Amino acid sequence: MRVLLGWVVSGSANFATFCYTATKTVSAPRSRASSLSAAHPSAAADLARLWQFEEMGIKDPDPEPNLSADDAQAVHQFKSSLRHDGGTYTVAVPKKPSITTLNNNKSVAAKRLQSKIADLKRAEGSYERYDREINAFIERGHAIEIHDVDEKAMDAVDGSYYMPHHQVVSERDGKTKWRVVFDCSSHRPGRSSLNEHLLVGPNVNPDLLAMLLSFRAHQIAVSADIAQAYLCIRIAEEDQRLFRCFWRGPRDQRTRVFQMVKVVWGAGPSGYLLAATLRHHLSQVGAESLGGNFYHDDFVISLPDSEAAERLVTSLVSGLQTAGMKLAKWKTNSPDVAALLRELGFDLPDPTDGPAFLKVLGISWSPQQDTL
């Protein structure tokens, strides 16, 4: 049968053979997707995925996926190290046994610092701005300054690692945002990086397409993200030596050494640590089902009416506070939910006369027209 998109074959698959194209014939399938797998494995995988979304477009993830040995070890280390003091979670970084052979990468970090400072000095105000961003880590409790450092122990195997760093600059709503990013993949030629000795952990985030479909399944849409999500989680004290960096500001007389005490973006396991910690906390506050509404630090959900959305917003804001996490960048198509969020102290665009398009999971969404 020919339709607008081309030729379509439908009906029972219990026959001996069928033609896939005018020139190729394959054996009868035992499942709907296997008929394509021999000659067109990628097409078969795509077709199988399409059929998984046959009814609503959502397939619940396997609650107990078959983990690799490394992923199983990462999960074990996470669960055995996780601690909560009532306001903040602390977790060890999942490591391979080879971590004992890691060199400290001091020489590379020192050279990269010299290059970074020279680069910053070329643009007026950049050196001072970068200095403020680095010192903000100290002021906000994300890092501490270390003084008892052997400056001569270059590239020694001493249980520490020095991360080069650089800035990522973005423009949004007429404002310039700077973010310092750490390079945990840095290493000398012939040596290994920190990331090579860390266990990345399994991907426990939901399917992105399923989240987008779910986001507009009901009338009321709500979106937010966790502010500085990775910096909400503390690194176990015994692992903090692995996350050191050099810095020398415009007014500093010497190079200083900082040690991060919160999870940094740039370490291989950071994504897993955030996702796993968040889902653990949701299970502790009776909101385990909302784990499927978080993709990394982004939260999206749709609900049948404003009353249900208001109840969820209130409980979620309260529940995440005990993990030291705060939701920000709220978006909704409901004036009632927007009004509640403003009462709770959040700043967000008016869904009736705000921006024409907002970003949700990287997709442009129009709250007024309710289109993605």
Which sequence of SSEs, written as H and E, runs from N to C?
Answer: EEEEHHEEHHEEEHEEEEHEEHEHEE
CATH class label of the largest domain: Alpha Beta
CATH architecture call of the largest domain: Roll
Number of helices: 8
Secondary structure tally: strands: 18
Structural class assignment: alpha+beta
Sheet of most strands: 4 strands, antiparallel
- Beta content comes to 15-25%
**Average pLDDT metric:** 85
Distance linking N and C termini:
32 Å
Give the low-pLDDT segments: 14-41, 53-63
Strand order of the largest sheet: 14-15-10-16
The Rg value, from CA coordinates, equals 25 Å
Helix content: 25-40%
The global form is globular
Give the total of domains: 2
CATH topology group of the largest domain: HIV Type 1 Reverse Transcriptase, Chain A, domain 1
Features:
single chain, 2 domains, 372 residues, 20% strand, four-stranded antiparallel beta sheet, alpha+beta, 28% helix, three-stranded mixed beta sheet, HIV Type 1 Reverse Transcriptase, Chain A, domain 1
